[in-house]
Amino acid sequence: MEANERQLLLDYSQNRFNAGVQTPLTQPQLNELITFLFAHRMQRAADGELTI
């Protein structure tokens, strides 16, 4: 995972779940983060910024 993706997930989890770096997440929250990251990477790939 790239540094900008890590920061993106941290920001998303803070805004969405009010969770910090040390906050344990539930399985549904983890699933949402994975889906968010996947969608972000697919958008970057569609924009030509990321090669799959």
Would you mind describing this structure in some detail?
The protein has about 50 residues and is an all-alpha fold. Helix content is about 65%, strand content about 0%. Helix 1 (about 5-15) crosses helix 2 (about 25-45). The longest helix is centred in the last third of the chain and has 20 residues, at about 25-45. The model has no long low-confidence stretch (mean pLDDT about 90).
Question: Which SSEs are present, and which pair or pack?
Answer:
Blueprint: H1 3-17, H2 27-46
Helix pairs in contact: 1-2
Poorly predicted runs are none
Radius of gyration equals 12 Å
Helix content: 55-70%
Number of strands: 0
Binned strand content? under 5%
Distance between the termini: 14 Å
What is the number of helical segments per DSSP (H or I, 4+ residues)?
2
Could you say which structural class the secondary elements and strand pairing correspond to?
A: mainly alpha
Mean pLDDT: 92
Shape summary: elongated
**Sheet with the most strands?**
none
Descriptive tags:
mainly alpha, 2 helices, 67% helix, 0% strand
In short:
The chain is mainly alpha-helical and 52 residues long.
